[in-house]
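Reply to dn_fold:

You asked what the input looked like. This is it:
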Amino acid sequence: MTKTQVTWYATTLSVVIISVAAGIGGKGALKLLKLEVPQWADLRSSVTLNCQYDTGGDSLYSVKWYKDEHEFFRYTPGLNPKTLVFNLDGVNVDENKSSSTVVTLFPLTRKSSGNYKCEVSTDAPNFPTVVGDANMTVIALPEDGPRIEGLRQWYTVGDYLEANCTAKMTFPEAQVTWYINNLEVDSYLLERYALEVSDGPFYNSTLGLRFLLKKDWVDTNKYKMDVKCAAKVSGADAKMDETSVRLRAVTDHTLSQERHIYNTGAVFTNYWLVILTIFVLHCYGTQN
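and this is what came back:
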């Protein structure tokens, strides 16, 4: 099983330029170059917010970060200390990994979801300001898995295959999907279980696979069938890990080969039994 992975999408929104004066003096125009806020953040991971800017040669006055219009971090190079953290529910700043351009949040909570804004200002006399904002939603990816349980290593055509796939401790609930030979399994082969809710709350999602193994589902060249399960948290452009199980499914051709080997061995064994019986009877008759 591979380690659970997620794809992050940094959102860069339009920048609002604000000036407290009709004309902005200074050496150059202040610009917000890039704002990176992950659209989806895993509850069990840290998050780095990135605000890149160009002061145009003017002196930086401050960089402020807001969540839902509430300030939680400020960087002011002219003060000592340069950084200032404000208590805000759901926002835990790692000061050792935060600076004038980045802010690291850890640990995350569900209340960490919201709108994040970066506000950059240069120095007097005009204090021009640029602002950029983006939304972030906190999710919880499967803690372990998804995990496939109940499969045997060997199957014969005609056997009944039963297995479960479970994605544990997610938020929101995970959507579980089964694949056979990379094709999504039809719903009539599935068994749906009630959603389990644990503290958090977190959700455990289980989907069963139940079907009679048919010959046309088996790769006749390799005598195997690929069974795969994937879990995805609803509403997130997140890539889930997939657990692959390869099955060696015995076909009619394989069975005929095994029967041939068995029958050949049986004939060979019976031949020597007959010879041994004749030898014993011969010895017994000679003694009498």
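Confidence is low (pLDDT under 50) at residues 1-26.
Hope that clears it up.
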